[in-house]
Write a structure and sequence with these properties.
Layout: E1 8-12, H1 17-28, E2 32-37, H2 40-52, E3 56-61, H3 67-79, E4 86-89, H4 104-132, E5 135-140, H5 153-173, E6 178-185, H6 191-196, H7 199-209, H8 218-229, E7 240-243
Parallel strand pairs: 1-2, 1-4, 2-3, 4-5, 5-6, 6-7
Helix pairs in contact: 1-8, 3-4, 4-5
The structure holds nicotinamide-adenine-dinucleotide.
The site of nicotinamide-adenine-dinucleotide (NAD) has 30 residues, from helix 1, helix 4 and helix 6.
Length: 250
């Protein structure tokens, strides 16, 4: 399928993990993809690989928690003469910390990247989409935005915030032709999850929490982003799609 010919998709956190898979899916379906990430070396690597595959790609290094950097990114895209038809607002961080021990700086950093960063990018891009008269925004939340997992109070709060940010954006922006949805993945194997959990924890987690008997892969999520950006989802707005192998069905 090549559903996104003549479209541009901006993907944040595209250097690795789920964001990289999302970018690859949009590129494979014909979009020009703009890879954005704080890790420039990863962007370079990914952009080279995409070019070798014949994909149309460019990239921008930025920290999504810095509004002035977000402004600059959007200005550059517009100056390059591109529209932004699709935003995969995916960049995020996670680490474990018991509630009673969370340091104020760590709380602030988590919220700054996962919630404030999501807001800065979504708002600046939505302003541009409003001028274009259309667009699709998909914000990355998590099953942790719907249920409280121990040792992740700051992460859970940030992802819960993303869901109501999404719903409010959907209400305000629908009349401008902009659809806004969220995706709530469960456990997905990526550099983020590998950095936090050892293999023994993962097999116990699968056994106790995931009816499908496996963890998710980035491509389990990228297909859902592509669906939400596509015409097949033309009447889906303000929704939050759980993709967790049945974890929240318990
Ligand atoms: P990852 O760490 O493998 O990739 C995240 C990417 O975001 C990295 O390339 C990183 O450099 C980038 N990034 C981090 N901070 C940034 C910043 N300030 N500015 C710009 N880029 C930044 O993580 P992942 O597992 O692929 O997660 C991607 C998203 O999916 C995150 O929002 C995460 O919270 C969410 N998520 C992940 C899981 C999971 O199990 N892996 C589950 C639910 C939701």
């Amino acid at each position: 399928m090549r559903r996104f010919e003549n479209s541009t998709a901006l993907v944040t956190g595209a250097g690795q993990g789920i964001g990289l898979a999302i970018a690859e899916r949009f590129a494979a379906e014909g979009a020009h993809v703009i890879l954005a990430d704080i890790q420039e070396a990863l962007l370079l690597q990914a952009a080279e690989r995409f070019k070798d595959l014949g994909y149309s790609v460019s990239y921008q290094a930025l920290d999504v928690s810095r509004p002035e950097q977000v402004d600059r990114m959007v200005e550059r895209i517009v100056q390059d003469g591109r529209s932004i038809d699709i935003l995969a607002n995916n960049a995020g961080v996670a680490w474990e910390e018991s509630f009673l021990d969370i340091k104020d700086d760590n709380w602030r950093r988590m919220i700054d990247v996962n919630l404030n960063g999501m807001f800065y990018v979504a708002q600046r891009v939505a302003r541009q989409m409003k001028e274009q008269g259309k667009g699709a925004i998909i914000n990355m939340s998590s099953t942790n935005g719907l249920a409280g997992e121990a040792k992740y109070a700051h992460y859970n709060a940030s992802k819960g915030g993303v869901i109501l940010l999404t719903k409010t954006m959907a209400v305000e922006l629908g009349a401008s032709g902009i659809r806004v949805n969220a995706v709530c993945p469960g456990y997905i194997q990526t550099p983020m999850s590998e950095a936090i959990d050892d293999p023994e924890f993962v097999s116990r987690y699968i056994q106790n929490h995931i009816p499908l008997g496996r963890v998710g892969e980035p491509k389990d999520i990228s297909g859902v982003f592509a669906f939400l950006a596509s015409e097949d989802a033309a009447f889906i707005n303000g929704e939050c799609i759980v993709v967790d192998g049945g974890q929240l069905a318990f």
